[in-house]
């Protein structure tokens, strides 16, 4: 009887999903309701935990039973999600598993608002049955004015749609007083490790910056926690303010509750004013320009942009800046940076082999320099023949 009551209660709770189908405007509320339903049905773990590996052929009965339960629950969760979508979204996600589906939806609906969304109030897309992607500029063109519910005609002589930005923000007086953050991506080519995004955290006073790779935008919250734990322990100070745009990755309930719990003030820029988050916007632009230049001077595959990005950030923290009197590193660490170990990224390097199997074997391998490991005082090298990256203390650099 208890089991039947629980099942009946779950069916009733599912009504909160079925009563309002998922759309761009209600994603945050929809996901919150979905988690409530799955938590009630003891299936929330499907979205939060990595799927188990398939059991071996000789696995015990308990392992087979546990894996079978996971498969059944995962199928139920997928059906619940699909049933709460519009027909168009169902077609896009029909071949995906539940966990991948949620990640895709977060990337789709929690992205940055586009400028067109400020002026076009509502577009009725119910009559569309297919989409065509323009890979050149990516613009969406509505061919019928009937699809625009609300537009405004400009008055005669009205050209300028908004006033020029003339504001200048005040600098804080201590490190970690204000952290600027922004997410960039997706990058067309996945970096090694499957990364398509990166997030930056830049200190306002010193302009010292951290960069983290991400597979999905939704990882931004975890990266901020990782960043906060490191810098507060290293500097013995606390982050006071986090400034970001209105990207959905910064607006989740978990993120905001975490900031409130730790006394961190969240500053969100007004819609359509990226200038107010100019430090992060400029940092991301500078990093991408550096990566583009570095990649153009090497024969490494495009998937190495992730390594180039980390190297660019490493270098940027150690060179003089117009904004600060010395270098970001000196203001952040309190000591002048050592630049003698810096090398040209992507250059050829001869690295001595640790083991030789024959007396006539070569004593070194020709590799590529691809970065500075964070965990040790050494270099990262790429061995093209083995397609592997390894760490070594030194090598003979063929810099030109």
UniProtKB/TrEMBL annotation:
Coiled coil: none annotated. One of its GO terms (molecular function) is nucleic acid binding. GO terms for biological process: DNA integration. Residues 160-336 form the Integrase catalytic domain. It holds the Pfam family rve. This is Integrase catalytic domain-containing protein. It comes from Cuscuta campestris. The lineage of its organism: Eukaryota, Viridiplantae, Streptophyta, Embryophyta, Tracheophyta.
